[in-house]
């Protein structure tokens, strides 16, 4: 595992932990956590406090047969194991993909994408950028998280490799370019429709659901 | 980050000094030579031997506390009890994922309960990080497990040293699902201690995770 340099912010990790992040962002955070020991440890270490607090609570009695009911249910079949990882795609991403490999759609210039979800919670998509190609320039309407799964890209904020996550907001105007070598595959979540400045005529945006 | 504050503890452990003295009004966990606390021991028996008696012990210990936590977060009695039963069943089914190097039983069960409760309020279940598969022949690292237990004891001690008003505030914030940053605002300085304890535990955890993920 390479050293991950760009992590999830405290605020985002808090929101994830409390379950208040919109789904597309939560998938990106869970995928990053699957690749990043540092952030996983940040998350799990706080459970130590949770455990101590749980221990310190004064219990409230359950109904008399509650334990017997649970004991009787132990032998019922276990819930299905969730979908596991596949290749470069960690388990939470494969779960978002319903266990299927990506179904790429050509965007032109060798760039491909799959929109995994797009609704009022925002959008989640996979992007495939050939080496040397620019991820289409865009301004942001809101928060965007981009997690690299393969290869790397660079922009004014730095160089992002597998596991690194770039956090961009309304103030960011960046133009990531895929580095030489492998095609760059990344997972991106946005909470607002991206406004492409060049590359793709604006009227085509609804068609591609970008 | 400075880790000065952990050193006396490590030194004390190496010297076989008596365990950290805990306040009488908090749950006791007199850390002894055994690296695992009794509930973690029970969870390991469930994991490794599908031990039903051990599971019953876990139920008796945690189910009432889980119910208190869920009631405190605003659930009604009936639904709180349903969730407690769900959570305890999940403990049975997911025990294979439990790793004593990364959590004590209390932390692990707390997380399952929290996630279960979060899912009730979400349209889609909260996506969770991939589980880390331990090699089946991995020898337990007693030092790491003991260190984790010691961290929890230190945290407990830090909480014990608060005024009862502060402690109540933290407990309230905890059952009401406030982020830790907000707990800190409500109580002022003391959470700094709690947070630094978490960070120390975190360093160990990260170390352990690195070892596992090779």
From TrEMBL, chain A:
InterPro entries associated with the record: Anti-sigma_ChrR (IPR012807), Anti_sigma_zinc_sf (IPR041916), ChrR-like_cupin_dom (IPR025979), RmlC-like_jellyroll (IPR014710), RmlC_Cupin_sf (IPR011051)
Pfam families: Cupin_7
Sections of the chain in a coiled coil: none
ChrR-like cupin domain: residues covered: 103-190
SUPFAM superfamilies for this protein: RmlC-like cupins
UniProt protein name: Transcriptional regulator
């Amino acid at each position: 595992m390479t050293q991950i340099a760009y992590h999830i912010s405290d605020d985002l990790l808090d929101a994830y932990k409390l379950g208040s992040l919109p789904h597309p962002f939560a998938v990106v955070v869970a995928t990053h956590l699957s690749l990043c020991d540092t952030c996983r440890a940040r998350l799990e270490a706080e459970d130590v406090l949770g455990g101590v607090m749980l221990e310190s609570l004064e219990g409230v009695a359950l109904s008399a047969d509650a334990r017997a009911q649970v004991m009787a249910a132990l032998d019922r079949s276990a819930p299905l194991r969730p979908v596991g990882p596949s290749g470069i795609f960690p388990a939470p991403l494969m779960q978002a993909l319903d266990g299927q490999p990506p179904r790429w759609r050509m965007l032109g210039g060798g760039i491909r994408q799959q929109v995994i979800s797009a609704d009022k919670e925002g959008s989640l998509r996979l992007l495939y950028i050939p080496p040397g190609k620019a991820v289409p320039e865009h301004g942001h309407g809101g928060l965007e998280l981009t997690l690299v799964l393969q290869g790397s890209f660079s922009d004014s904020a730095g160089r992002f490799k597998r596991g690194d996550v770039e956090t961009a907001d309304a103030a960011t105007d960046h133009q990531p370019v895929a580095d030489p070598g492998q095609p760059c595959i990344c997972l991106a979540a946005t909470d607002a429709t991206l406004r492409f400045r060049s590359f793709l005529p604006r009227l085509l945006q609804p068609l591609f659901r970008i | 980050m400075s880790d000065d504050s952990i050193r006396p503890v490590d030194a004390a452990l190496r010297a076989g000094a008596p365990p950290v003295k805990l306040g009488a009004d908090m749950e006791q966990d007199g850390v002894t030579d055994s690296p695992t606390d009794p509930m973690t021991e029970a969870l390991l028996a469930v994991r490794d031997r599908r031990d039903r008696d051990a599971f019953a012990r876990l139920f008796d210990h945690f189910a009432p506390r889980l119910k208190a936590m869920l009631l405190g977060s605003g659930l009604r009695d009936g639904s709180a009890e349903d969730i407690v039963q769900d959570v305890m069943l999940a403990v049975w089914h997911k025990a294979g994922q439990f790793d004593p190097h990364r959590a004590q039983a209390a932390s692990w069960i707390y997380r399952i309960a929290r996630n279960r409760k979060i899912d009730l309020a979400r349209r889609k279940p909260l996506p969770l990080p991939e589980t880390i598969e331990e090699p089946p022949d991995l020898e337990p690292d007693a030092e790491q497990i003991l260190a984790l237990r010691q961290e929890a004891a230190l945290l407990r001690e830090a909480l014990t040293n608060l005024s009862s008003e502060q402690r109540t505030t933290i407990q309230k914030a905890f059952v009401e699902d406030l982020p830790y940053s907000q707990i800190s605002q409500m109580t002022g300085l003391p959470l700094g201690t709690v947070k630094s304890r978490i960070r120390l535990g975190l360093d160990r955890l990260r170390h352990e995770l690195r070892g596992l993920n090779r």
